[in-house]
């Protein structure tokens, strides 16, 4: 009984697992049966694969074809298996030899005329193939720059099924990735020198960038909240190689990668509209869950403008990723895990009417309280820096030019390097990631230094979580000035950021 085999990859979240595809050609009426928990799009691949093989000039087997995808208990989603399904059938029919199929992973969707189309999740699939010890992976030719980001595995690009068949027969070659990619740093949306005045806000932004802290900006419309937030990625250091691959893998699954620049080397900036839904924010979708805004902002900035207009459920859904740096989405087909270690920047007006001056406000006191009331206590407790911005005077617009982003980025990079060196053994990269108990045990501070935090905690002005976050900010302030340990002045600065509630 003819039997053919080929391999592909099932991607869940940004993790992948090798899927073995077996093709059996038996007696019976001509038909194609697909087993192994395929979803609707994969069930439709029976007709796509059959038409593609016929239009390539090869003969589809006469008889009953059974295609089994193993492990059978793993849900299979999408059209990434098309090329492997075709190869398994052609192997079973002795149209292509099995020699090159051994140790090779095949990825790609087939058009009816045999063209290979790009699919989502190519990068995490190639990473999974390398972890599984596979030597070669064949991808659609247009996805070759993305797949070629992975070193340690041979990556080939096939434009059509015909080209892949010729390569399997040893009659032709495929374009091979050189593994060398020229990356260009993305130009920031704006420079920090464009911000006139607002020295306190600029300092708060620098502290947030240096320590990876979350930030809340409140103030009248047009005061510069959005302008500051958009310039935060420009003062963050470039992503490391591992971070860049991790961020690129998320955007590959989301389908937002650029063909011209497949590797993301700068911190992403994601700014969803205030009408966004819970699924769009944290991820979701039927079958296999797609990454949401919190994951696409991984290692970058998530900016929520007009946060008081965002639904309360959407805001509360961010509490877990803010604390854990990961989002877990449970669906019918299992649990998808996406990293979500981002910096949250919230911006809000002080009240619904949002006048230029507080004295011109026409809102009732209850309306003002209710407006920012959507920012619940547990959510606010996870924000490290609260800042109320004030309008500029006429002289504030004519002052000398401020520091540019490159200058500030130099100080931020030095402060982050100090934090990385401090927590090297534990793997934490910023002060914001360090658990409170580790901060207190590994680097205890004198009682006179922590006295302001103890007093605020005793008076009920901050919670225990707030106290830990204040200490983290104090360590960041210390790193920015190049100190060894925070002083009482550093702690007071950090505490001052938390005791000016926007409500």
UniProtKB/TrEMBL annotation:
<feature type="domain" description="AAA+ ATPase">
    <location>
        <begin position="211"/>
        <end position="352"/>
    </location>
</feature>
<dbReference type="InterPro" id="IPR014721">
    <property type="entry name" value="Ribsml_uS5_D2-typ_fold_subgr"/>
</dbReference>
<dbReference type="InterPro" id="IPR000523">
    <property type="entry name" value="Mg_chelatse_chII-like_cat_dom"/>
</dbReference>
<dbReference type="InterPro" id="IPR025158">
    <property type="entry name" value="Mg_chelat-rel_C"/>
</dbReference>
<dbReference type="InterPro" id="IPR027417">
    <property type="entry name" value="P-loop_NTPase"/>
</dbReference>
<dbReference type="GO" id="GO:0005524">
    <property type="term" value="F:ATP binding"/>
</dbReference>
<dbReference type="InterPro" id="IPR004482">
    <property type="entry name" value="Mg_chelat-rel"/>
</dbReference>
<protein>
    <recommendedName>
        <fullName>AAA+ ATPase domain-containing protein</fullName>
    </recommendedName>
</protein>
<dbReference type="Pfam" id="PF13335">
    <property type="entry name" value="Mg_chelatase_C"/>
</dbReference>
<dbReference type="Pfam" id="PF13541">
    <property type="entry name" value="ChlI"/>
</dbReference>
<dbReference type="InterPro" id="IPR020568">
    <property type="entry name" value="Ribosomal_Su5_D2-typ_SF"/>
</dbReference>
<dbReference type="Pfam" id="PF01078">
    <property type="entry name" value="Mg_chelatase"/>
</dbReference>
<dbReference type="InterPro" id="IPR003593">
    <property type="entry name" value="AAA+_ATPase"/>
</dbReference>
<comment type="similarity">
    <text>Belongs to the Mg-chelatase subunits D/I family. ComM subfamily.</text>
</comment>
<dbReference type="InterPro" id="IPR045006">
    <property type="entry name" value="CHLI-like"/>
</dbReference>
């Amino acid at each position: 009984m003819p039997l053919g085999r080929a391999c592909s990859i099932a991607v869940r979240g940004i993790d992948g697992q090798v899927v073995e595809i077996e093709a059996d050609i038996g007696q019976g009426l001509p038909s194609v049966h697909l087993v192994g928990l395929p979803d609707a799009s994969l069930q439709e691949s029976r007709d796509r694969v059959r038409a593609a093989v016929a239009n390539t000039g090869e003969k589809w087997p006469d008889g009953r074809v059974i295609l089994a995808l193993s492990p059978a208990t793993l849900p299979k989603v999408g059209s990434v298996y098309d090329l492997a399904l075709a190869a398994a059938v052609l192997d079973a029919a002795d149209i292509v030899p099995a020699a090159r199929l051994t140790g090779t992973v095949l990825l790609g969707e087939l058009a009816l005329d045999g063209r290979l189309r790009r699919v989502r999740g190519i990068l995490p699939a190639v990473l999974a193939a390398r972890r599984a010890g596979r030597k070669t992976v064949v991808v659609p030719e247009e996805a070759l720059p993305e797949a070629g980001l992975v070193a340690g595995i041979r990556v080939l690009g096939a434009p059509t099924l015909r080209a892949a068949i010729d390569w399997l027969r040893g009659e032709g070659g495929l374009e091979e990735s050189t593994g060398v990619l020229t990356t260009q740093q993305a130009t920031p949306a704006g420079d920090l020198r464009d911000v006139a005045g607002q020295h306190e806000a600029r300092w708060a932004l620098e502290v947030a960038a240096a320590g990876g802290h979350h930030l809340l900006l409140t103030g009248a419309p047009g005061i510069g909240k959005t302008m500051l937030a958009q310039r935060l990625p420009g003062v963050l250091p470039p992503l490391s190689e591992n971070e860049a691959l991790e961020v690129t893998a998320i955007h590959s699954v989301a389908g937002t990668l650029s063909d011209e620049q497949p590797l993301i080397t700068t911190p992403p900036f994601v700014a969803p509209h205030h009408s966004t839904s819970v699924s769009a924010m944290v991820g979701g979708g039927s079958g296999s869950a797609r990454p949401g805004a919190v994951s696409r902002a991984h290692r970058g900035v998530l900016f929520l403008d007009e946060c008081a207009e965002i639904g309360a459920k959407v805001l509360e859904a961010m509490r877990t990723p803010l604390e854990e740096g990961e989002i877990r989405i449970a669906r019918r087909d299992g649990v998808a895990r996406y990293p979500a270690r981002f910096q949250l920047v919230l911006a809000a007006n002080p009240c619904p009417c949002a006048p230029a001056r507080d004295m011109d406000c026409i809102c009732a006191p209850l309306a003002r309280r209710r407006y920012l009331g959507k920012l619940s206590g547990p959510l606010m407790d996870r924000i490290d820096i609260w800042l109320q911005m004030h309008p500029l005077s006429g002289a504030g617009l004519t002052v000398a030019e401020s520091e540019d982003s490159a200058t500030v980025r130099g100080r931020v990079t030095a402060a982050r390097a100090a934090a990385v060196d401090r927590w090297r053994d534990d793997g934490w990269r910023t002060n914001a990631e360090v658990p409170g108990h580790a901060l207190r045990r590994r680097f205890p501070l004198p009682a006179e230094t922590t006295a302001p935090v103890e007093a605020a905690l005793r008076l009920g002005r901050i919670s225990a979580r707030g106290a830990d976050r204040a200490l983290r900010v104090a360590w960041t302030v210390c790193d920015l000035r190049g100190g060894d340990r925070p002083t009482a002045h550093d702690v007071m600065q950090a505490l001052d950021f938390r005791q000016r509630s926007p409500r």
